[in-house]
Specification:
Number of helices: 12
Strand content: 5-15%
Largest sheet: 8 strands, mixed
Number of strands: 8
Strand order of the largest sheet: 3-4-2-5-1-6-7-8
Helix content: 40-55%
Structural class: alpha/beta
Mean pLDDT: 81
Length: 335
Amino acid sequence: MDVLTNKKVIWVGGKGGVGKTTVSSSLALLAANRGKKVLLVSTDPAHSLSDAFARHIGNHITRMAPNLDALEIDPDDEVEQHLAQVTSQLKRFTRPEMFSEIERQMRLTRQSPGAQEAALLERIAKTIQLAQQEYDLVIFDTAPTGHTLRLLSLPEAMAAWTQGLLRANEKSEKLGAVMEHLTPKSGRDVTNPFDDPTQHATAGMDPRNKAIAETLLTRQRLLQRTREILLDKSQTAMLFVLTPEKLPILETSRAVDALLQEHLPLAGLVVNRILPDDADGEFLAQRRVQEQKHLAEIDQRFKKLSLFKLQLQPTDIEGITGLSAMADRLANSGI
């Protein structure tokens, strides 16, 4: 198996409350200790990276330890910045009498389903681009499973993003032709939407429409590069965290199926908080009997995947000291 910390991008996901943030933070420290320059990024609206490290991080890259920076992306702030940028760009290419309509459309967009995911996706794409230039590895501590899977549905997200902007400009036939060329649901191969003899898609446009189209093409290419990186198992790994309990097993099973269907590279599962063998007492003895059944189910259900098993600790894991000890346990589990 490839060494996980040698990847360029790692996504850590799983059901809420199973220890994703602790695992992703410890994994980041492990990679940093192995000499990698690491950026740890939280995309979960309910950020807990700051809690794990016992110090504030926020929406700015912050140095946490030698070789390790961290960032908590604010989804609401991303939506506002994303829409402000789109509004500004549209106004550059639109007559002043259309400004009120553009602002109305942007207000509606702010409340529309998927607005936060679209803004987050663009920020993630830019973060990966930054990390490719300045870091060896970027680790994403992601939101609970359903949110993450929606975010990783890149073809649909790309189509929605493109079509949303297209609607603001649909009166332009030539721009519409470019968007038809870009939009996956039009039948174009989503793995390579630029694989088309029309290499110069904006050729022949007037300056106004050409500027709009070039803006959309630039964003589309950014997302396309992101998609290529996320699908490349030599660069990217998805790691899911679960506990030996019924609901996390069922949710992880659905997530694994969805990831495999999208051909995303799943590196394995971290089975967290297993009762230690020396935990005593009648209550824990009963829990252990049930846990053994769940562990057997995990071994059987996910037998084609690598499993990294971690024991439950007697105290909360926080701060550099606690996370470093957890990093050692991750290394001992085989990561």
